[in-house]
Amino acid sequence: MNATTSPLRRWAHYLLLGLTCLGVAACSREEPLPEPAVRSVKVTRVHAADAEGLPLTGVVRQRQRAELAFEGAGRLVALNVDVGDLVKQGQVLASLDSAVVQLRLKQAQATLFASVAQTGERKRNRLRQQQLFAQGSVAASAVEQAETAWQAAVAQQAADETALDLVRRDQRQGQLIAPFNGRIVARTAQLYSELSPGQAVMELEATDAAQVIVPIPVEQAIGLKPGDRAVATDPSAPGSSLPLVLEGLSMRAQNGVLQSARFRLLANDLALPSGVNLTVNLVSGAPLPLSIPTQALRVGADPRQVQVFVYDPALGKVTLRDIRIGLIDQGRVAIDAGLAEGEQVVTTGVAFLDDGQPVNLLQSSSRLSVTQ
Protein backbone atom coordinates (compact mmCIF):
# COMPACT_ATOMS: atom_id res chain seq x y z
CA MET A 1 0.00 0.00 0.00
CA ASN A 2 2.74 2.39 0.92
CA ALA A 3 4.85 1.31 -2.01
CA THR A 4 1.93 1.83 -4.37
CA THR A 5 0.93 5.35 -3.27
CA SER A 6 4.42 6.78 -2.79
CA PRO A 7 4.93 7.84 -6.48
CA LEU A 8 1.52 9.55 -6.51
CA ARG A 9 2.34 11.53 -3.45
CA ARG A 10 5.66 12.63 -4.88
CA TRP A 11 3.95 13.72 -8.11
CA ALA A 12 1.36 15.77 -6.19
CA HIS A 13 4.10 17.37 -4.15
CA TYR A 14 6.02 18.40 -7.27
CA LEU A 15 2.85 19.80 -8.85
CA LEU A 16 2.06 21.86 -5.75
CA LEU A 17 5.63 23.19 -5.63
CA GLY A 18 5.49 24.26 -9.29
CA LEU A 19 2.22 26.09 -8.84
CA THR A 20 3.64 27.87 -5.80
CA CYS A 21 6.67 29.07 -7.76
CA LEU A 22 4.50 30.31 -10.59
CA GLY A 23 2.39 32.27 -8.11
CA VAL A 24 5.41 33.82 -6.47
CA ALA A 25 6.82 34.80 -9.86
CA ALA A 26 3.54 36.34 -10.90
CA CYS A 27 3.32 38.32 -7.68
CA SER A 28 6.89 39.57 -7.95
CA ARG A 29 6.43 40.89 -11.51
CA GLU A 30 6.24 44.77 -11.51
CA GLU A 31 3.79 46.66 -13.71
CA PRO A 32 5.69 48.91 -16.28
CA LEU A 33 5.23 52.70 -15.75
CA PRO A 34 3.41 54.51 -18.59
CA GLU A 35 5.68 56.59 -20.82
CA PRO A 36 4.96 60.36 -20.64
CA ALA A 37 3.13 61.76 -23.65
CA VAL A 38 5.28 63.44 -26.30
CA ARG A 39 3.91 66.83 -27.23
CA SER A 40 4.71 69.05 -30.20
CA VAL A 41 5.78 72.56 -29.21
CA LYS A 42 7.26 75.72 -30.67
CA VAL A 43 10.38 77.23 -29.17
CA THR A 44 12.20 80.54 -29.45
CA ARG A 45 15.73 81.57 -28.61
CA VAL A 46 16.45 83.98 -25.80
CA HIS A 47 18.12 87.03 -27.30
CA ALA A 48 18.73 90.73 -26.80
CA ALA A 49 17.29 93.12 -29.38
CA ASP A 50 19.80 95.23 -31.24
CA ALA A 51 19.37 98.90 -30.32
CA GLU A 52 20.48 99.99 -33.79
CA GLY A 53 17.88 97.85 -35.47
CA LEU A 54 14.95 98.82 -33.24
CA PRO A 55 12.86 101.48 -35.00
CA LEU A 56 11.48 104.36 -32.96
CA THR A 57 9.16 107.19 -33.93
CA GLY A 58 10.10 110.83 -33.48
CA VAL A 59 8.24 114.09 -34.09
CA VAL A 60 9.88 117.18 -35.59
CA ARG A 61 9.49 120.48 -33.76
CA GLN A 62 11.29 123.81 -33.60
CA ARG A 63 13.37 124.82 -30.60
CA GLN A 64 11.62 128.20 -30.29
CA ARG A 65 7.82 128.18 -30.40
CA ALA A 66 5.31 130.74 -29.23
CA GLU A 67 1.52 130.99 -29.10
CA LEU A 68 0.85 134.71 -29.45
CA ALA A 69 -2.11 136.43 -27.79
CA PHE A 70 -3.19 139.87 -26.58
CA GLU A 71 -3.13 140.37 -22.83
CA GLY A 72 -6.37 142.33 -22.83
CA ALA A 73 -9.70 142.08 -24.58
CA GLY A 74 -10.55 143.96 -27.75
CA ARG A 75 -11.55 143.91 -31.39
CA LEU A 76 -8.99 142.63 -33.88
CA VAL A 77 -8.70 145.34 -36.56
CA ALA A 78 -5.37 144.49 -38.22
CA LEU A 79 -3.73 141.21 -39.30
CA ASN A 80 -0.46 141.96 -41.03
CA VAL A 81 0.71 138.35 -41.60
CA ASP A 82 -0.75 134.99 -42.51
CA VAL A 83 0.23 131.33 -42.30
CA GLY A 84 3.59 130.66 -43.94
CA ASP A 85 4.89 134.25 -43.74
CA LEU A 86 8.41 134.89 -42.48
CA VAL A 87 8.63 137.58 -39.80
CA LYS A 88 11.44 139.43 -38.03
CA GLN A 89 11.84 140.14 -34.35
CA GLY A 90 10.01 143.34 -33.37
CA GLN A 91 7.66 143.28 -36.37
CA VAL A 92 4.01 144.25 -35.69
CA LEU A 93 1.90 141.20 -36.52
CA ALA A 94 -1.61 142.28 -35.47
CA SER A 95 -3.42 145.13 -33.71
CA LEU A 96 -6.53 145.68 -31.61
CA ASP A 97 -8.92 148.62 -31.93
CA SER A 98 -7.14 151.41 -30.04
CA ALA A 99 -9.94 154.03 -29.88
CA VAL A 100 -10.80 153.30 -26.25
CA VAL A 101 -7.16 153.16 -25.23
CA GLN A 102 -6.51 156.53 -26.89
CA LEU A 103 -9.33 158.12 -24.87
CA ARG A 104 -8.00 156.58 -21.66
CA LEU A 105 -4.55 157.87 -22.56
CA LYS A 106 -5.83 161.46 -22.96
CA GLN A 107 -7.71 161.17 -19.69
CA ALA A 108 -4.64 159.90 -17.83
CA GLN A 109 -2.49 162.67 -19.31
CA ALA A 110 -4.96 165.33 -18.23
CA THR A 111 -5.22 163.89 -14.72
CA LEU A 112 -1.46 163.86 -14.39
CA PHE A 113 -1.24 167.47 -15.64
CA ALA A 114 -3.67 168.53 -12.90
CA SER A 115 -1.71 166.60 -10.28
CA VAL A 116 1.53 168.28 -11.29
CA ALA A 117 -0.11 171.72 -11.03
CA GLN A 118 -1.56 170.92 -7.62
CA THR A 119 1.76 169.64 -6.34
CA GLY A 120 3.47 172.84 -7.46
CA GLU A 121 0.84 175.05 -5.85
CA ARG A 122 1.00 173.21 -2.52
CA LYS A 123 4.76 173.29 -2.56
CA ARG A 124 4.71 177.07 -2.94
CA ASN A 125 2.12 177.35 -0.13
CA ARG A 126 4.33 175.23 2.12
CA LEU A 127 7.25 177.59 1.54
CA ARG A 128 5.05 180.65 2.18
CA GLN A 129 3.75 179.23 5.47
CA GLN A 130 7.28 178.46 6.60
CA GLN A 131 8.31 182.11 5.89
CA LEU A 132 5.29 183.50 7.76
CA PHE A 133 6.00 181.25 10.72
CA ALA A 134 9.56 182.50 10.80
CA GLN A 135 8.17 186.10 10.98
CA GLY A 136 5.77 185.08 13.76
CA SER A 137 2.70 185.79 11.62
CA VAL A 138 1.20 182.25 11.71
CA ALA A 139 1.06 179.39 14.17
CA ALA A 140 3.01 176.18 13.82
CA SER A 141 -0.19 174.31 12.99
CA ALA A 142 -0.50 176.25 9.74
CA VAL A 143 2.96 175.09 8.70
CA GLU A 144 2.07 171.48 9.56
CA GLN A 145 -1.14 171.63 7.48
CA ALA A 146 0.76 173.03 4.50
CA GLU A 147 3.37 170.27 4.85
CA THR A 148 0.68 167.56 4.95
CA ALA A 149 -1.13 168.99 1.95
CA TRP A 150 2.08 169.10 -0.08
CA GLN A 151 2.95 165.44 0.77
CA ALA A 152 -0.56 164.33 -0.23
CA ALA A 153 -0.15 166.15 -3.57
CA VAL A 154 3.18 164.45 -4.20
CA ALA A 155 1.62 161.04 -3.50
CA GLN A 156 -1.31 161.75 -5.81
CA GLN A 157 1.05 162.83 -8.58
CA ALA A 158 2.97 159.55 -8.26
CA ALA A 159 -0.28 157.58 -8.49
CA ASP A 160 -1.36 159.49 -11.59
CA GLU A 161 2.03 158.89 -13.22
CA THR A 162 1.61 155.14 -12.60
CA ALA A 163 -1.88 155.23 -14.07
CA LEU A 164 -0.52 156.91 -17.20
CA ASP A 165 2.20 154.27 -17.51
CA LEU A 166 -0.42 151.52 -17.30
CA VAL A 167 -2.46 153.11 -20.07
CA ARG A 168 0.63 153.42 -22.23
CA ARG A 169 1.37 149.76 -21.53
CA ASP A 170 -2.17 148.85 -22.62
CA GLN A 171 -1.52 150.86 -25.77
CA ARG A 172 1.60 148.82 -26.48
CA GLN A 173 -0.23 145.58 -25.63
CA GLY A 174 -2.74 146.44 -28.32
CA GLN A 175 -0.08 145.43 -30.84
CA LEU A 176 1.17 141.88 -31.29
CA ILE A 177 4.96 142.01 -31.72
CA ALA A 178 7.13 139.14 -33.02
CA PRO A 179 9.41 138.01 -30.15
CA PHE A 180 11.94 136.38 -32.50
CA ASN A 181 12.64 135.67 -36.16
CA GLY A 182 10.49 132.86 -37.52
CA ARG A 183 7.55 131.72 -39.58
CA ILE A 184 3.82 131.87 -38.87
CA VAL A 185 2.58 128.25 -38.69
CA ALA A 186 -1.02 128.78 -37.57
CA ARG A 187 -3.63 131.54 -37.29
CA THR A 188 -6.54 130.94 -34.96
CA ALA A 189 -8.37 134.30 -34.96
CA GLN A 190 -10.29 136.10 -37.68
CA LEU A 191 -10.10 139.78 -38.56
CA TYR A 192 -12.68 142.01 -36.79
CA SER A 193 -13.48 139.33 -34.23
CA GLU A 194 -13.87 140.19 -30.54
CA LEU A 195 -11.03 138.64 -28.53
CA SER A 196 -11.02 137.75 -24.87
CA PRO A 197 -7.90 138.26 -22.73
CA GLY A 198 -5.25 135.67 -23.54
CA GLN A 199 -7.07 134.24 -26.57
CA ALA A 200 -4.53 132.83 -29.05
CA VAL A 201 -4.28 134.70 -32.35
CA MET A 202 -1.41 132.91 -34.12
CA GLU A 203 1.53 130.54 -33.59
CA LEU A 204 5.12 131.43 -34.42
CA GLU A 205 8.04 129.04 -34.80
CA ALA A 206 11.72 129.68 -35.42
CA THR A 207 13.25 128.25 -38.59
CA ASP A 208 16.88 127.71 -37.67
CA ALA A 209 16.90 124.97 -35.00
CA ALA A 210 14.82 121.87 -35.69
CA GLN A 211 14.52 119.20 -33.00
CA VAL A 212 13.19 115.64 -32.99
CA ILE A 213 11.39 114.40 -29.87
CA VAL A 214 11.60 110.61 -29.53
CA PRO A 215 9.84 108.50 -26.85
CA ILE A 216 12.33 105.73 -25.91
CA PRO A 217 11.60 102.63 -23.77
CA VAL A 218 13.10 102.99 -20.30
CA GLU A 219 15.28 99.90 -20.61
CA GLN A 220 16.68 101.16 -23.92
CA ALA A 221 17.32 104.66 -22.57
CA ILE A 222 19.66 103.31 -19.88
CA GLY A 223 23.17 104.43 -20.74
CA LEU A 224 22.15 107.10 -23.25
CA LYS A 225 23.95 110.41 -22.81
CA PRO A 226 24.11 113.77 -24.60
CA GLY A 227 26.20 113.50 -27.73
CA ASP A 228 24.98 110.02 -28.70
CA ARG A 229 24.05 109.72 -32.35
CA ALA A 230 20.98 108.49 -34.18
CA VAL A 231 19.79 108.37 -37.77
CA ALA A 232 16.29 109.39 -38.86
CA THR A 233 14.42 108.42 -41.99
CA ASP A 234 11.55 110.32 -43.54
CA PRO A 235 8.87 107.73 -44.43
CA SER A 236 7.72 109.95 -47.29
CA ALA A 237 11.25 109.92 -48.76
CA PRO A 238 12.54 106.32 -48.85
CA GLY A 239 16.31 106.13 -48.64
CA SER A 240 16.65 109.44 -46.80
CA SER A 241 19.16 109.61 -43.95
CA LEU A 242 19.03 112.46 -41.44
CA PRO A 243 21.77 112.55 -38.77
CA LEU A 244 20.70 113.37 -35.22
CA VAL A 245 22.59 114.06 -31.99
CA LEU A 246 21.10 113.62 -28.51
CA GLU A 247 20.77 116.90 -26.57
CA GLY A 248 18.82 115.80 -23.52
CA LEU A 249 16.84 112.97 -21.92
CA SER A 250 13.85 113.39 -19.61
CA MET A 251 14.30 111.89 -16.16
CA ARG A 252 10.57 111.19 -15.88
CA ALA A 253 9.09 108.09 -17.47
CA GLN A 254 5.66 108.46 -19.08
CA ASN A 255 3.40 105.76 -17.60
CA GLY A 256 6.56 104.15 -16.27
CA VAL A 257 7.49 102.93 -19.76
CA LEU A 258 8.83 105.73 -22.00
CA GLN A 259 11.32 108.56 -21.60
CA SER A 260 11.37 111.58 -23.92
CA ALA A 261 14.66 112.17 -25.72
CA ARG A 262 15.46 115.47 -27.47
CA PHE A 263 17.62 115.19 -30.58
CA ARG A 264 19.04 118.03 -32.68
CA LEU A 265 18.74 117.72 -36.43
CA LEU A 266 22.22 118.27 -37.84
CA ALA A 267 21.02 119.07 -41.36
CA ASN A 268 20.27 122.76 -40.80
CA ASP A 269 19.58 123.38 -44.48
CA LEU A 270 16.74 120.85 -44.50
CA ALA A 271 13.32 122.47 -44.10
CA LEU A 272 11.17 119.86 -42.35
CA PRO A 273 7.74 121.08 -41.24
CA SER A 274 6.84 120.73 -37.58
CA GLY A 275 4.73 117.72 -36.65
CA VAL A 276 6.31 115.40 -39.25
CA ASN A 277 6.93 111.85 -37.97
CA LEU A 278 10.37 110.34 -38.58
CA THR A 279 11.62 106.79 -38.12
CA VAL A 280 14.62 106.93 -35.77
CA ASN A 281 17.32 104.31 -35.20
CA LEU A 282 19.84 104.73 -32.40
CA VAL A 283 23.49 104.46 -33.36
CA SER A 284 24.87 104.38 -29.84
CA GLY A 285 23.55 103.51 -26.42
CA ALA A 286 22.93 100.46 -24.32
CA PRO A 287 21.29 97.44 -26.01
CA LEU A 288 18.06 95.98 -24.79
CA PRO A 289 18.26 93.24 -22.14
CA LEU A 290 17.47 89.62 -22.92
CA SER A 291 13.81 89.14 -23.74
CA ILE A 292 11.30 86.46 -24.69
CA PRO A 293 7.68 86.48 -25.90
CA THR A 294 5.07 86.78 -23.17
CA GLN A 295 3.50 83.51 -24.41
CA ALA A 296 6.45 81.64 -22.92
CA LEU A 297 5.62 82.67 -19.35
CA ARG A 298 3.97 80.35 -16.85
CA VAL A 299 2.54 82.24 -13.88
CA GLY A 300 1.22 80.33 -10.90
CA ALA A 301 -1.04 81.33 -8.04
CA ASP A 302 1.73 83.62 -6.78
CA PRO A 303 2.22 86.29 -9.49
CA ARG A 304 5.76 86.86 -8.23
CA GLN A 305 6.71 83.30 -9.23
CA VAL A 306 7.26 83.23 -12.99
CA GLN A 307 8.55 80.14 -14.80
CA VAL A 308 9.39 78.98 -18.31
CA PHE A 309 10.02 75.62 -19.93
CA VAL A 310 13.59 75.42 -21.28
CA TYR A 311 14.12 73.02 -24.17
CA ASP A 312 17.16 70.72 -24.13
CA PRO A 313 17.87 69.68 -27.76
CA ALA A 314 20.27 66.91 -26.66
CA LEU A 315 17.64 65.15 -24.54
CA GLY A 316 14.56 66.26 -26.41
CA LYS A 317 12.94 67.27 -23.12
CA VAL A 318 11.85 70.42 -21.36
CA THR A 319 12.86 71.62 -17.90
CA LEU A 320 10.77 73.94 -15.74
CA ARG A 321 12.85 76.91 -14.52
CA ASP A 322 12.16 79.92 -12.27
CA ILE A 323 13.05 83.31 -13.78
CA ARG A 324 12.83 87.00 -12.82
CA ILE A 325 11.29 89.38 -15.34
CA GLY A 326 11.36 93.13 -15.98
CA LEU A 327 9.29 95.43 -18.17
CA ILE A 328 6.79 94.11 -20.70
CA ASP A 329 6.56 95.98 -24.00
CA GLN A 330 4.97 95.09 -27.35
CA GLY A 331 4.46 91.43 -26.51
CA ARG A 332 7.96 90.79 -25.15
CA VAL A 333 9.19 90.66 -21.57
CA ALA A 334 12.68 91.61 -20.38
CA ILE A 335 14.58 88.92 -18.48
CA ASP A 336 16.37 90.10 -15.33
CA ALA A 337 17.64 86.66 -14.23
CA GLY A 338 17.25 82.94 -14.89
CA LEU A 339 18.00 82.63 -18.62
CA ALA A 340 21.08 82.90 -20.81
CA GLU A 341 21.32 84.17 -24.37
CA GLY A 342 20.84 81.38 -26.90
CA GLU A 343 18.73 79.12 -24.69
CA GLN A 344 15.42 77.95 -26.13
CA VAL A 345 12.10 78.34 -24.34
CA VAL A 346 8.70 76.88 -25.23
CA THR A 347 6.12 79.38 -26.53
CA THR A 348 3.09 77.12 -27.20
CA GLY A 349 1.17 74.72 -24.96
CA VAL A 350 2.98 75.87 -21.81
CA ALA A 351 -0.05 75.11 -19.63
CA PHE A 352 -0.06 71.42 -20.69
CA LEU A 353 3.62 70.58 -20.08
CA ASP A 354 5.32 68.97 -17.09
CA ASP A 355 8.89 69.20 -15.86
CA GLY A 356 11.08 66.70 -17.74
CA GLN A 357 8.47 65.92 -20.40
CA PRO A 358 9.78 64.86 -23.84
CA VAL A 359 8.67 67.05 -26.73
CA ASN A 360 8.88 67.32 -30.48
CA LEU A 361 9.56 70.63 -32.21
CA LEU A 362 6.64 71.77 -34.31
CA GLN A 363 7.84 72.60 -37.81
CA SER A 364 6.04 75.31 -39.73
CA SER A 365 5.06 74.61 -43.31
CA SER A 366 5.63 78.24 -44.29
CA ARG A 367 9.11 79.56 -44.99
CA LEU A 368 7.91 83.00 -43.90
CA SER A 369 7.16 81.86 -40.35
CA VAL A 370 10.21 82.42 -38.17
CA THR A 371 9.99 82.17 -34.40
CA GLN A 372 11.76 85.04 -32.71
List keywords for this structure.
372 residues, OB fold (Dihydrolipoamide Acetyltransferase, E2P), 4 domains, six-stranded antiparallel barrel, 34% strand
Proportion of beta-strand residues: 25-35%
Round the mean pLDDT to the nearest integer and report it.
82
The H/E string reads HEEEEEEEEHHEEEEEHEEEEEEEEEEE
Our Rg estimate from Cα atoms comes to 45 Å
Q: Could you please say which CATH topology of the largest domain applies here?
A: conserved putative lor/sdh protein from methanococcus maripaludis s2 fold
Q: How many helical stretches?
A: 4
Main pleated sheet:
8 strands, antiparallel
State the CATH class of the largest domain. Answer: Mainly Beta
Domain module tally: 4
Low-confidence parts, pLDDT < 50 over ≥5 residues? 365-372
Q: Please identify, by name, the CATH architecture of the largest domain.
A: Beta Barrel
Question: Roughly what percent helix?
Answer: 25-40%
Oligomeric state as shown: single chain
Give the class from helix and strand content and strand pairing.
alpha+beta
Q: Which word captures the global form?
A: elongated
- Euclidean distance between termini CA atoms: 92 Å
Strand segment tally: 24
